[in-house]
Amino acid sequence: MRARHDGLVPDGAPVRIAMVLLLAGTAVPAHAQRDALVRADRIRTFDPAQLGGRVNPVWLSDGVRFYHEATAGADRGVLFLVDPVRRTRHPLFDNARIAASLSAAARVQIDTLRLPPVRGG
Q1: Residues 6+ apart with CB under 8 A from 118
Q2: What is d(CA 114, CA 95) in angstroms, rounded to the nearest whole number?
Q3: Do residues 55 and 62 touch, judged by C-beta distance below 8 A?
Q4: Which residues share a beta bridge with 58?
Q5: Beta bridge pairs of residue 59
Q6: pTM (predicted TM-score)
Q7: Rounded Cα gap, residues 81 and 92, in angstroms
Q8: How many Cα neighbours within 13 Å face the side chain of 9?
Q9: Closest CA to 92 of 50, 60, 64, 54
Q10: Dist. CA 56–CA 77, nearest whole Å
Q11: Secondary structure (DSSP) of 52-82
């Protein structure tokens, strides 16, 4: 059933007015579109190694903190404990001490960057 109009607004005019307003609000200048495409391409081609590698968090039982292994840079192979609430990031272990202890126990020189991997779960 069609709604009755008082004759001041032709049928379908509210829809046309809404469409014009909607389309007018979405008009984007060419330079803004180009900038958005450049940003999108930068994200698409992002190389995580440039910023210190990927973070694959292993969440602790408190559901707030996690640890992850650094995959690039000078900290490669170091496990870090991260607390986003306190905004802290600290090494989970002292790799130099662990490597020294393992080296003494095994009577073989163990590199701090080649410690056995720790797998969370």
Answers
A1: 69, 79
A2: 10
A3: no
A4: 67
A5: 66
A6: 0.48
A7: 5
A8: 9
A9: 60
A10: 13
A11: T-----EE-TTSS-EEEE--SSTTTT-EEEE
Count of residues for the chain?
121
Residue 99 has pLDDT above 80, yes or no: yes
**Residue that has been written with the tokens 């069609």 in this structure:** 2
Q: Record the tokens describing residue 20, joined without a space.
A: 């014009």
Token pair 């910023």: residue: 51
Which residue shows structure tokens 């200048």? 29
Per the CB < 8 A criterion, the answer to whether 72 and 92 are in contact is no
Burial class of residue 53 in the structure, from the number of CB atoms within 10 Å of its CB (0-12 exposed, 13-18 middle, 19+ buried): middle
- Compute the radius of gyration of the chain from its Cα atoms: 29
pLDDT tens-digit readout, 36-92? 777 767 666 666 555 556 778 889 999 889 998 887 777 777 888 999 889 999 998
Residue owning tokens 């073989």: 108
- Tens digit of each residue's pLDDT (9 = 90 or more) over 24-33: 555 667 777 7
Determine if residue 44 is left, alpha or beta; phi over 0 gives left, psi from -120 to 50 gives alpha, anything else beta.
Answer: alpha
